[in-house]
Amino acid sequence: MSPTKSAKKKSAKKSTKKPTKKAAKKVAKKKATKKAAQKRSTGGKTGSRSKPEQADLFSQSSKGKATKASPPRSKKKIKKSRETSGEDASSANKAEQLAAKQKDISVSEFFAKNRHLLGFDSPARALLTTVREAVDNSLDACEEAEYLPTIVVEVTAASEEQHTILVRDNGPGIVPAQLPKIFGRLLYGSKFHARKQTRGQQGIGISAAGMYGNLTTGKPMVVTSRTSRRKPATQVTLAIDMAKNQPVVKKEREVDVDWAHGTEIHIELEGTYKKGKHSIDAFLEQVSLANPHVEIQYKNPVDKEPIIWERVTKKLPEAPMEILPHPHGVELGILMQMMKDTSSRTVSGFLCSEFCRMTPNVVKKVSEQSEELGKYIDTDRHPRRLSSADVKILHKSIERTKMMAPPTNCLSPIGEELMAKTLRRNFDPELVLTVSRQPAVYRGNPFQVEAGIAYGGELPGDELASIFRFANRVPLQYEQGACAITQSIISTPWKNYEVQQARGALPTGPLAILVHIASVWVPFTSESKKAVAGYDEILKEMRLAIMEAGRKLAIHLRKKRRLADAERKKDYIKKYIPQIGIALQDILELSDKQRTGAESKLADVLEKSRKM
Amino acid sequence: MTKKITRAYLDKVRRENAKKDKKTISSIENAADDIYKKIQRRGKPLMRFPVRSLSNVSYDKRKGYLEIGRARKERTLTVNTVKGFAQTLRMMGLSRELVINNDFATKRDVYYQSKNWEEAKFDDQTESDTVMDDIEALFSVDDVSREQLRFVPDEHGGAVAGDLVVLDPDLESGEIERIDCTRFGSGAYSIPTSVEHLSFETGAKFILAIETGGVFQRLQSHKFWKTSNCILINMAGVPTRSTRRFIRRLSEQAKIPVYAFVDCDPYGISNIYRTLKVGSGNAAHINRFFCVPNATYLGVTPQDIIDYELPTHPLKDVDIKRAKDALKNDPFFKSKKQWKSAIEQLLSMGVRAEQQALAMWGLNYVIEEYLPQKLKNPGKFLP
Fold first, then answer.
1. Which residues of B touch A573 (CB under 8 A)?
2. Which of A31, A530, A606, B13: disulfide with A479, CB 3.0–4.6 Å?
3. B46 CB near a chain A CB, below 8 Å?
4. How confident is the model at residue A516 (pLDDT cuts 50, 70, 90)?
């Protein structure tokens, strides 16, 4: 680790695990600008992108009874009803009655009632979700601090239905003061609004896991963290006050640990340990595939020996850069929100400062487009002065304006060489073929697709290929069928590459296929982020990547088959020519010499013809 | 008319058999020699087989049987065919050995024999049967039959009763077995798998080839052959090759006609009768030996169903398909107008009737009324 290079960064990082100072500021600012009007309780949550959705969920659960049809944008509705209250006294009265019933509901309370939304709907999934969240956090912490991650995962059985999960990283650790905030509150993080390639984006996960454990076993989460060899480790025992979304520190003490720095979480929760596609084993195996720089030491409750995936490179992946959103990717609702929140005083200034590839020159073109659409938008106006109809036209004009594609240096692919190394390490195959495509763009979002194929070795030859899907290095384990990655693998003409494939199915053979999409904004089919949506540009890139890897595979397989064929034919000739000799000798009463002469001549002729 | 088997005749049979055997052996040797010479010239040996499918079959009225066409397929010895080539040659070698040792082998025997052939052995009998069919086709071009190659069928032959003495000489000892087909009581003489060496003494006027065992049994136990001076043969369904060959040789030697008496349905007409008369479409390369061109169709005809008011069953889908196929694709039926109209009549009636349907009018109606009436007008039989 190079302290000089990132000293500044680290000092900030050390103080908080996830939120940077900048982010914290932003949170504060957002809070101010965005009405405290209704949802005081959501104070902990951050980020403009997620905010509307969260608000929706709350409004539905808290006011569901009172205002049945309360639609997603409930905030606005309420505002409106207040605005019009002067005109209609009776409706105002009603609104006040309703308001009296409208109670605040905390994120935590909401979660307690809707645990399935966050991946805790079945006992088997609860364990996996907990490990997933903890590992994601650990990896992000290590990478932000530029440490090579070593992650220890231990699952031990307390009983059939209760397990203890321990996840430890060798990251920078967290200063004691921040520990309760990070692990005791939902939605506390810095990743929501960052427009760069990151693993998770919720920040809800690990504290939710702690809460789930607390709810199901009564045992609070234990977090131990050490920031330096020179300092002792701090261990806090954390429960969550669900009504207030506040951490409750039950115990805090200094402890001795045998590791220099890092964070360890310890959660006991209700959940069952299972093997298979949706298991912790499978998840960690996949993490190891997409993260060549990570070492994972894993102990499950069933197998005696721990599983260790050693890192195949000592080079950290290049940190993805943060970029401004590209105008073509922005949705109307988001644009409206951004215009409300901006500190710029002109539309032109707003566009140029909050989007990439926007210059005064491009803004001019946008205005021209708006004129063509029937209403000229004066870009010198104040952003908050535009009516929503105007913003609509502005949005359309932006879409119609040609501009440069976004920069693509913000992506962090795994790389062909390292993908090959992890595939070799995990499957010990006969062949490995990997492809990293050049970055491309969909709807203003840069993305990059990579594909890797492992063939042969110990992989089972008579089964469907194993598929490993990744979005920003994070394994996707559910909804394989709905995923663009699966679709693109199925639509690849495997038969052309010497691989069997039934119509409309995955290829059959000793194959493991890895597909990774890196993007600042991976489009998922749903909020639960289990499957990549099939945008044309993305499907096309995926297919091209898989086909390129497939073509490489075919070259090897053809060569192999040719050699095997030649060998087989040689065998064949050796096997059956003597029989022809014997038959001819029998029928024609040849001498042995005549027979062997005929045999060798015939062998010559066939050997020659084989080469044609 | 009776034919005596004399020493001279026996010698003649022996000479003919020896001649045939010599021909068989020379055919095999020539084929092997062609291959050997080609190898000596460092060329790729090849074998030419007649194509065995309906597309390569025609019916010649003058010859009177389904005949294989000129289409040939070539099989060149390559890496991919080397196994089949070796097996074909080894089987030819086996055939030559059988001829030399005056022995024979059934299909199953050949399959087991191949187990001595090391790498060239067959894994199951369908493989060896296919190669045997190939060899048979290969040599049929030289007028050599499967029997002459000493490969005999496993299938059972038909049964014979009536005024007939079969002379079955033991060619080694020269002793001749006289088999009197009137003396089987309620049983019958069973046709052997190989009939080439047999000769016959008979005073019968015709041969009645019967489809079912039931009717044969009735005619035999009432000594119908005596009252109408004929030979009864039970075909038991589609006649086997040896049954066909037996009928053919008997009718040719005794110069007597053959009348077929089968069920009136597409199977009786297009499978049993057609195969008896002109041979089978599947094995057209051997039909010249295994057909009875002077057979005619006594009954039951579609017209009989009406004339004798026979009880019927409706035609099944397979029957209709078979009848239509006969009209459309079978070169024999296509060339016979009478058959065309008879089959069309059957189709339009939409029914079929069995031989035994005659029993409706009394169990012995077939002996006392039907057959005597029919036999008065053999010229009216369907061709």
1. 79, 82
2. A530
3. no
4. very high
Q: What tens digit of pLDDT does each residue of A405-456 get?
A: 788 777 888 999 999 999 999 999 999 999 999 888 887 788 899 999 999 8
- A567, A574, A580: best to mutate for the B interface, most B CBs within 10 A: A580
Cα gap A67→A83, rounded to integer Å: 18
B318 touches chain A (CB under 8 A): no
Q: What is the ipTM of this complex?
A: 0.72
Distance, in angstroms, between A560 CA and closest chain B CA? 19
Helix (H) or strand (E) holding B159: strand B159-162
CA distance B93 to chain A (A): 5
DSSP A464: B
d(CA B127, CA B112): 12
- Which structural domains are found in chain B, ordered by start? 7-43+77-152 (1.10.10.10), 159-380 (3.40.1360.10)
Strands A233-241 and B164-169: unpaired
| A503-541 as b/e: b if 16+ CB within 10 A | eeebbbbbbbbbbbbbbbbbbbeeeebbbbebeeebbeb
First to last CA, chain A: 60
Which one of B39, B78, B86 has the shortest CB-CB distance to A609? B78
One-letter amino acid of A570: K
What are phi and psi for residue B226, nearest 5 degrees?
Answer: -75, -45
**Numbered ranges of CATH 1.10.8.50 in chain A:** 327-400
- B 100-119: CB under 8 A from A: 117-119
Task: Give, in order, the Cα–Cα distances in Å from B237 to each of A373, A418, B216, B243, B343.
Answer: 88, 74, 12, 11, 20
CB contact under 8 A, A587 and B78: no
- C-alpha of A541 from chain center: 18
Q: A567, A582, A587: which to substitute to probe chain B, counting the most B Cβ within 10 Å?
A: A587
Return the percentage of chain B with pLDDT > 90, whole number.
40
Q: Using CB atoms, pick whichever of A573, A582, A583 lies closest to residue B79.
A: A573
| pTM reported for the whole predicted model | 0.56
pLDDT digits (tens, 9 = 90+) for A93-115: 777 776 666 655 566 666 667 76
Is CATH 3.90.850.10 what the domain over A115-309 is classified as, yes or no? no
Q: Residue A88: CB partners within 8 Å, gap ≥ 6?
A: none
- C-alpha closest to that of A193 among A378, A338, A369: A338
Query: Which of A579, A598, A604 minimises the CB distance to B120?
Result: A579
- The angle at the Cα of A540, spanning A538 to A546, to the nearest 5 degrees, equals 100
**pLDDT digits over A157-194, tens only?**
888 888 999 999 998 888 888 887 777 665 554 444 44
Give residue B288's identity as a one-letter amino acid code: R
Which candidate, A51, A52, A69, A47, places its Cα nearest to that of A60? A69
- pLDDT tens readout for residues B15-57: 888 888 999 999 999 999 999 999 999 888 888 888 776 677 7
- Its CATH architecture, for the domain A410-612, is 2-Layer Sandwich (3.30)
Q: Do A583 and B82 touch (CB under 8 A)?
A: no
Enter the DSSP assignment of B285: G
Which residue in B29, B83, B120 is closest to A588 by CB distance?
Answer: B29
CATH fold group of domain A327-400: Helicase, Ruva Protein; domain 3 (1.10.8)
Q: Would you please indicate which residues of B are annotated as catalytic (active-site) residues?
A: 112
What is the DSSP code (8-state) at residue A532? Answer: B
Cα separations in angstroms, A252 against A14, A221, B331:
19, 12, 102
SS3 B297: strand
Give the containing element (helix H, strand E) for A268: strand A262-270
Q: Where in chain A is the domain with CATH 3.30.230.10?
A: 410-612
